Amino acid sequence: MPVCLRVPKASGQRTLRALGEMELLNRSFKVAAEEGNLLLPLVRLPSASETARLKTLEPAMMLLDAEVPRPIARPTLLDALSERLPPHLLAVAPRSIDHIGDIAVIEFVPELWQHRAIVGNAILAVEKRTRTVLAKKGPVTGAFRLRDYEVVAGDGKMETVHRENGCVFYLDLSKVYFTPRLSFEHQRVAMSAKEGETVVDLFSGVGPYAIQIAKRVRDIRVYAVDLNPAAVEYLERNILANNVWGKVIPIEGDAREVVRQQLANSADRVIMNLPSQATLFLDAACLALKPRGGVVHHYAFATAGEPIEVVQASAVDAIRQAGRGVEAVLATRTIRAVAPHEYLVALDLAVR
Fold first, then answer.
1. Which of 47, 81, 272, 321 would be a feasible disulfide site paired with 278, CB 3.0-4.6 Å?
2. How far apart are CA 102 and CA 328, in angstroms?
3. Are 347 and 273 within 8 A, CB to CB?
4. Do residues 289 and 264 make contact, with C-beta atoms less than 8 angstroms apart?
């Protein structure tokens, strides 16, 4: 039974906001109502300064011990699968699900593959926002970076609307590449862009980098390039949906040719999110940069005990061969493991 703060209903919302800011609200319990008052559960007794702040919001507040109802625990996927799978398979049940809009994407281990429909329907049962469950059938391949999926549950529609960092993205997973696992990276790069810059996003897809940059920075121009016509169609739709038309310029075509013909010596910042081949395109990134240089956000896969050092050495060498030099390594990140002993790595390079 937690300590509660009793306040009149009229001041409930502002008091809840204050409790959240002070990390006092106990979210394991429900807010209860009592004769014109609300009982707000607390994780601990407030300090003297916290009590003083709460008193200014609601002088009639009162601390007391009171029964408040616990919320009904939401069933988990393991709860649902425990009734549908033999115990020895629960150990290999999916622990990580990619949610892209109302689509759930699963990577199954081989021993669970024959039970994929059971897992898919269990996901639909516990995740009410999910409409379609897809199973990965292979790696990302081809010039358009597409993956083969199998519909294992739900209505099978591959088009969805994904929301990320205050932006909306229309996409179709059968036609374009998208991963929600780079959400933080999209935001990190967007926060590094500065007023007045020109940015070239060489492998833009449906626009998660370009659009988030344009939404955050008032005075900026982003050229978003992609080879996939379907990706560019969704990019154009997303530009309109996020009200950044005129700030994000969509261009369909091969990154190297587009830079050579349209974007040479134009960029303060270049984004290269094509980890399987980005090193091969560093010459195009160098050509896109203004003569005085700029920043390159470089992504690559690495298979080594020290993946950042391997990628950095390769990138520095490729930039040197393109006639430029790395003035400084501004940031390095091992983003995630993509396979045993294989990592996705990001480098922010100041190129002179």
1. 272
2. 41
3. no
4. no
- Domain 3-65 sits in CATH 3.30.70.2580: yes
Question: Are domains 3-65 and 179-351 of this chain identical in fold?
Answer: no
User: Hunting for tokens 């407030």 — which residue is that?
Assistant: 46
Token pair in block for residue 5: 């703060």
Quickly name the fold that domain 179-351 has: Rossmann fold (3.40.50)
List the chain domain ranges. 3-65, 77-157, 179-351
For residue 72, the model assigns a pLDDT of 47
Extract the residue ranges of the chain whose pLDDT is less than 70.
1-2, 65-73
Q: Report the DSSP beta bridge partners of residue 5.
A: 40, 63
Residue 280 Cα to chain centre, angstroms: 26
- Provide the whole-model pTM: 0.78
* Rounded distance between C-alpha atoms, residue 108 and residue 115, angstroms: 9
Spatial separation of the C-alpha atoms in residues 100 and 163, rounded to whole Å: 8
Q: What is the pLDDT of residue 142?
A: 92
Please give the single-letter amino acid code of residue 344.
L
pLDDT at 12: 87
Report phi then psi at 221, rounded to 5.
Answer: -130, 125
